[in-house]
Design brief:
By secondary structure, the chain is an alpha+beta fold. The chain folds into two domains: 2-219, no CATH class; 234-387, 2-Layer Sandwich (Alpha-Beta Plaits). The chain contains 13 helices and nine strands. The chain has helices at 2-19, 22-30, 32-67, 72-96, 103-130, 136-147, 153-173, 178-223, 234-246, 263-270, 272-290, 314-331, 355-374; strands at 251-260, 297-299, 304-310, 334-335, 338-339, 342-346, 350-352, 380-382, 385-387. Strands 1, 2, 3, 6, 7, 8 and 9 form a seven-stranded mixed β-sheet that branches. Strands 4-5 form a two-stranded antiparallel ribbon. Helix 3 (32-67) packs parallel to helix 5, helix 5 (103-130) runs antiparallel to helix 6 (136-147) and helix 11 crosses helix 12. The chain is elongated, with a radius of gyration of 35 Å.
Amino acid sequence: MESISAFLNMKIENIKAVLTARYEKDAQTEDPGAYRSLQNHLVYKNAGRVSVFSIFSLLAGVFELVSGVGTIFCNIGSIILIISSVVLCWLCTRTLLMKSPDHSLLRLFTMIFWLCFTAGVLMIAVAEQLGGLFPYSFLIYIAAVFSVPVVNVYESFAFAAVMFIYPVIYGVTCEKEFMFFISAAAVTVSYIWIAAVVRCCYANIRIGEYRLEMTEERCTQIARKDTLTGLLNKAGLSAKFSEMTDTMQEKTISVVLIDIDNFRAFNHMYGYDASDSCLYRVCNCIKIVAKQYTDLVSRFGGDDFVLVLENMNEIEGVKLAEQLRQSVETMAQPFGNGIVTVSVGVSGAAVLKSKDTYSELLNEADDQLIIAKNSGRNCIGFRGRPFIHEDRKPAGGSQI
């Protein structure tokens, strides 16, 4: 008996959860982003249905205006259907086609459409009833409402109220049998349940999709970041360039390539932990200097860093490179008989037309870095010659 009771209680709780949209409410509390995504998704879907369904509503209005019972109620209802279908179909479609649709407007247009549709159909149904006919147009209304059950809880109860109250009034007026009222109640309950189940399914699917999208996005961001320094890695920088080239905005860029002098010797001398600490400190120096100029800073290899400068002329690029070199030198990280230093290669500036432009500039910066390395390190290479500060400190480690 206890197992049966537990089973029944579980089923009752499930029914309550579906009817009261508890899953949506839990999502609203636990994950507001997922809840907003769900609401926007439902609004978008319903507005799309209005754009399609209003065409049938327009045809129904024209048909009733031409072939209906011809009373004033029928004509007014037909005109309401025609005008609301044309105007709201146009408004919904125009808003849906925008790059960033206004969901509050879409929701408003959808609600107004269903209000007008309900008013128009009810007026035609009353006209049919006054003309001594069965209100067949109301059956069309029920079919239409059942075809678009993805609404919120309050809207579904509003539709259900219309679906129940009008048949009751019609049944009382025409002195229908008791089973007629039972049938009206059954149809109403069926609609409430179907609307709740569909809404619950949409909520589960959409919230699950949203969370999956967020997880994938976080994984992508993690995959594009260097775990030690927090900078972009090669994949992250490549993705940034793809985004820049996809925007079709021509930008002038230059590349700065930074390499820690004799870092392999530092690693052998002090070990991996000290090397990681050194990398982190050099990275901080680079970030502090570069943050006011660019956010495209990447750890390109073990001890290489890349900066991409947008819309900076060559002189400004060399000045920034010198600031970076001096910042690391000022850090004065001990290294053998000297300190940790960096050599820098600076490319010329070019208009970014494709990812090939970046590759060419990176190769050029690498060539300039080799010039700096061959000139005693702790200096800058640019346009085939080194720029050596008169007070530069000697690079630590082996000078091979």
